[in-house]
Amino acid sequence: MNELEATIAIKNGDENAFRHLFNLYYDRLVAYIVTYTHDKMTSEDIVQQAFINFWYAKDKLKDFKSPKSYLYTIAYNEFINTINKEKRQNNILNIVYENALRDRIEEDHEALERRVNKMNQIIQTLPPKCRQTLEMNKIKGMKYQEIAETTGVSVKTVESQMSLAFKKIRKGFEKENLHLLFMNFHKKIKLELLN
User: Where in the numbering of this chain does the RNA polymerase sigma-70 region domain appear (predicted)?
Assistant: First the structure.
């Protein structure tokens, strides 16, 4: 089966043709994305997602054209999406951090203690793997890639665990309308978590 035949078959929902193109381009696409990420595991996650996107967009394929450039474009776009998602999360954390520092100056010590205790209680209720991921990132300062390598999971799994932790923390503080998240009292939280 050549590429054009595979393209026509994929448009008709042929999973064997999809598998054929996957086997043909997977390693090449990973090598291509590695030139941007400099990380094989992250690149593999990106390429796998790119192939999923390719399958769902199969109706856009042209019968007379090789899917190669389309696959490379999808993989590159998925890389950009991954970078943007990471930047958005970092920007949100920076905003929350700055607001928290401003709040900290204005509030008294007792209120700060209550917030720290509440944060610790929320963290204690997280599922074990989620809590471990959060601690590795926010307390130990490990990057998502380092956490993935240490725990033997994908970067996407780390992102998913962090997202779950953020949701639970935001929910825990939403009624009080607080902008509190990990601020300058990392050490205090760390001590509580380690005890």
Answer: 21-88
